[in-house]
Amino acid sequence: MFVLAELKDTVRIPPSRFQYKLNDVVTDELNRKLANKVYKDVGLCITLHDITKIEESYIFPGDGASHTKVTFRFIVFRPWIEEILIGKIRSCSPEGIHVTLGFFEDVVIPPHKLQHPSHFDQMEQAWVWIYKENGKTHNLFMDAGEVIRFRVVKEIFTEAPLSSAPNAPRDISEKPEANNVAPYTLHGSIDEPGLGLVTWWETA
C-alpha cells in the first residue's frame, strides 16, 4: 500500500532560514511542498523518508534565496493492482460504492464489480446484494459507514505528466495544474468470496 519513491527537486531557501541546518530546512521545505499532494505515476505523497543527496547551493542575481538540488525518497500511497484493502463506505450512488480509507477518499467500486446480483435502492441510497441460500433470498444492504474489504483492480491518474526522463528519479519541481477531477482514483472489486462487507464473512 505504501512505497518509497525516489525523487529529485530544487529547493528554494529564503535568507531568513540560512541560520538553520541545511538538512533540517530542506526536510521542512520538501514536506511543505509535497505532503498530501498527488503526482502522476507517483501517487499520494505522505512524508519524507530520507535525503540521499544534497548538491551545491546557488544564489541567482535578483534573488537572495539559495537554490539547492536534492535527491530524496518520499513515502507514497500507491497500492499495487490486485492488493486487498479495507475501508469504509462513504456513500453509494448509481455509479457505484464510494469508499474512504480515512486519509484517501477517491476509491470507487463500480456496479459491474459488485457481488452478483446487486441493485441500487433509490429509497435507501444503498446497493443491495441479492443473496440466495437454501432456497431463501436475503437482501444484504451496503450502507454508509460499513467496513468493506475490496481488491484494487485499476488506478487512474488525471494530472499533467511530470517532466522526467524514463527510469530516472522523477523531478517534481512543478506542481501539476489543479482541476475539478480527482487527481488519483482507485477502482475496486468485491465480486468474489471473502470480499465485500466484513460482517458478511465473520461467521463464514
TrEMBL record:
GO biological process, any: transcription initiation at RNA polymerase III promoter
Signal sequence, start to end: none
Keywords for the protein's UniProt record, in alphabetical order: DNA-directed RNA polymerase, Nucleus, Transcription
One Pfam family per UniProt: RNA_pol_Rbc25
Record's GO cellular component terms: RNA polymerase III complex
MF term (GO), any: DNA binding
Entries under InterPro entries matching the protein: NA-bd_OB-fold, RNA_pol_III_Rbc25, RNA_pol_Rpb7-like_N_sf, RNAP_E/RPC8, Rpb7-like, Rpb7-like_N
Source superkingdom: Eukaryota
Stored Gene3D superfamilies: Nucleic acid-binding proteins, RNA polymerase Rpb7-like, N-terminal domain
Domain RNA polymerase III subunit Rpc25: 83-201
Boundaries of every RNA polymerase Rpb7-like N-terminal domain copy: 8-64
Subcellular compartments: Nucleus
PANTHER family (UniProt xref): DNA-DIRECTED RNA POLYMERASE II, III, DNA-DIRECTED RNA POLYMERASE III SUBUNIT RPC8
Family: Belongs to the eukaryotic RPB7/RPC8 RNA polymerase subunit family.
The protein's name: DNA-directed RNA polymerase III subunit RPC8
Source organism per UniProt: Temnothorax longispinosus
